[in-house]
Amino acid sequence: MSERTCCPACGSSSYKKNGHIHNGKQNHQCNQCGKQFVLCPTKKEIPESTKDLIKKSLLEKTPLRGICRVFNVSLVWLLHFISPLYESLPDDLNFISYGEEHSVFIHRIEAEVDEMWSFVGEKTNKQWIWIALDGATRQVIAFYVGDRSREAAKELWHRIDKSYRESATFYTDLYESYVGVIPHERHHRVTKDSGKTNHIERFNCTLRQRVSRLVRKTLSFSKKLKNHIGAIKYFICNYNLTRQAALRV
After folding, report:
1. Where are the domains of the chain?
2. What are the CA-CA distances from residue 212 to residues 118, 136, 145 (Å)?
């Protein structure tokens, strides 16, 4: 591609140097509209093998800028790459209910529910992650990101598989928002030392260790709620597939 002599956005020939882009090329900025560009752009094709590795890296505690440095891609490219990836995730989280297959034992189905704190943009913008987990298979049944109100608990409840809402026994902590949302006869409020919420507490730790946006005191926090939810959903969908593979062994 030939060298540019003007701004690609407004056509102005008045521009200045403005640092370097990820591959070391000189970056420029238009004095008229503020558009940033390079004089000799080259289209870089990212091989499928690299994209597959990037997808795996998104499941580990690696910040987006860290992925950019490792795979030599721009942050703009990466954001455009993950957006359709997150949007294509199934709403069922790749969850498989075993209740219908083993209907004789349906009364034994147990689920654990808990919520964990996170934020988007700044710590004053709190976003609570509500999670329901199958106590036997350790699969995530449903999750919801919102505030810490009873309305958020209702939203989580509506997302839980019907077979669990009708038959499972649910264990939660003593938080009041669950009261009146989960049917009283199948809702057990317990303390942490009871051991009845150990699995979901452990999963909360797994989330914080594997999703960089959730690490406490992190610099890798989400700027947009949509990406925050997408990153969590992406990990949960892959986590459920991993749990299913473990159950088949």
Report:
1. 1-43, 46-88, 103-248
2. 11, 27, 17
Provide the 8-state DSSP code for 224: S
Strands 169-172 and 187-189: parallel
pLDDT in tens, 163-208: 999 999 999 999 999 999 999 999 999 998 999 999 999 999 999 9
CATH topology of domain 1-43: N-terminal domain of TfIIb (2.20.25)
CA angle 188, 194, 105 (to 5 degrees): 55
pLDDT at 102: 46
Q: How far is CA 247 from CA 67, 98, 186, in A?
A: 31, 11, 26
Q: Exposed/middle/buried for 6, CB within 10 Å: 0-12, 13-18, 19+?
A: middle
Is the full-model pTM beyond 0.90? no
Could you list the beta-strand ranges (E) of the chain: 15-20, 26-30, 36-37, 110-120, 122-134, 140-146, 169-172, 187-189
For 3, phi and psi rounded to 5 degrees?
A: -75, 135
Q: What is 103-248's CATH superfamily?
A: Ribonuclease H-like superfamily/Ribonuclease H (3.30.420.10)
